[in-house]
Amino acid sequence: MPPTTNIEANVQRAVPFFWVHDLEASCRFYVDGLGFKVAKQWIDEGKLRWCWIELGETAIMLQEFWREGHHRNVPETTVGVGVSIAFICEDALALYRDFKARGIEATRPSVGNGMWVTQLVDPDGYNLLIESPTDVPEETLFSDNG
Asked: Is pTM beyond 0.90 here?
């Protein structure tokens, strides 16, 4: 039986959902450090349990692991390992400078696959790649001196 829905038109965007150990620390990193804005949140018994944060046209959902009760889901292994999200931007170098000014650790940008790329790691080990198109030769390293 053929599908009755135009799947391509129906799917609108993918939003990464990160389980985190400390939601307050993650919010400080993403909101204060990277400039995300909290667009939606779930507060349960006076505690922030989940939030949807946005920066430009991107979004991420964050939720703290449940430490007790029947919802308990704290993993015994490190989270974030092997997970990378690439944010395609107009100017990754400008964002790199801004992040560094805010005290956020970021790798020195380099060119790979026709993109300036700098990498950040959030408090739970999720890799965030900040990238923007460039005509600069492959493997060029950014110079902080201009």
From this structure: no
